[in-house]
Amino acid sequence: GENVEQHPSTLSVQEGDSAVIKCTYSDSASNYFPWYKQELGKRPQLIIDIRSNVGEKKDQRIAVTLNKTAKHFSLHITETQPEDSAVYFCAASRGSGNEKLTFGTGTRLTIIP
Amino acid sequence: GAGVSQSPRYKVTKRGQDVALRCDPISGHVSLYWYRQALGQGPEFLTYFNYEAQQDKSGLPNDRFSAERPEGSISTLTIQRTEQRDSAMYRCASSSQTGASYEQYFGPGTRLTVT
């Protein structure tokens, strides 16, 4: 089955700096890669996703890049703000018809004011 | 509209008892998923449905766990003869297969504690 590894497990950055979280996956059939943000005591919420037919996607301060050959994808957050502090999870699935998500182990991001 | 809802939000039960966890997906969502999330970990897949059909139950830990979605809407996850190791947050998610969206919307979860 799919295995998703995520690094780092914790990350602290100064407010205004950028944060990068990296994930690798094992199943070459995976073609959908979402990122979820989970604040303390809350449910996971999708912040951005990418499919295998594109290499990069951006939404304001958040971007995701995908390298299918190397089987890795990354989350980039620019101009970080205190409200970006949360746990971030990457995930992978085969997409249409078999959409179960395999999650990474999470990255606790702390923004230092 | 309303998001995914789950009940109960908290459940404390004694070892050996059966529990039933309920998920009410977003109206009209075709797919419904069950995950289990241990503290500090990512959600772990248990099973999922398209309409009323259980498509994949490969993540259910053992035969004490079962799930159903008889009318293609509300789903129930049942754990029989609970054990302490079953203690976790159980999350439900739903998604629409309309258009090209794969997004899964998560519910608030049921925190299960087995004493």
Number of helices, where a helix is a run of at least 4 consecutive DSSP H or I residues of chain A: 0
The dominant shape of chain B is globular
Instruction: State the helix count of chain B.
Output: 0
Structural class of chain B: mainly beta
Succession of helices and strands of chain A? EEEEEEEEEEE
Q: Provide the low-confidence segments of chain B as ranges.
A: none
> What percent of the residues of chain A sit in helical stretches (DSSP H or I)?
under 10%
- Biggest chain pair interface: A-B, 23 and 25 residues
Largest sheet of chain A: 6 strands, mixed
SSE run of chain B: EEEEEEEEEEE
Query: How does the helix and strand content of chain A classify structurally?
Result: mainly beta
Return residue spans of chain A where pLDDT drops below 50 for at least 5 consecutive residues: none
Distance between the termini of chain B: 37 Å
Mean pLDDT of chain B: 94
- The number of strands of chain A is 11
Regarding quaternary structure, what we see is heterodimer
Which percent range fits the helix content of chain B? under 10%
Main beta-sheet annotation of chain B: 7 strands, mixed
